[in-house]
Task: inverse folding
């Protein structure tokens, strides 16, 4: 099938154990940068990243 095109989107959710509110504004930006770096190292495109105190 030479004319096949695939485009996949994934939605990942990470959370601390028991969904405790451990992700404070103090570490939130560093955590986003870390996750963005992982995606870049895997040659992936990160379209959006966001979170709450109990999950990303």
Result:
């Amino acid at each position: 099938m030479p004319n096949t095109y695939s485009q996949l989107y994934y939605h990942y959710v990470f959370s601390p154990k028991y969904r405790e509110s451990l992700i404070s504004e103090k570490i939130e930006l560093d955590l986003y940068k870390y996750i963005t770096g992982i995606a870049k190292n895997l040659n992936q495109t990160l379209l959006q990243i966001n979170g709450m105190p109990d999950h990303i």
Q: What stands out?
A: Residues 25-41 form the longest helix (17 residues). The chain has a mean pLDDT of 91. The chain has one domain: 12-56.
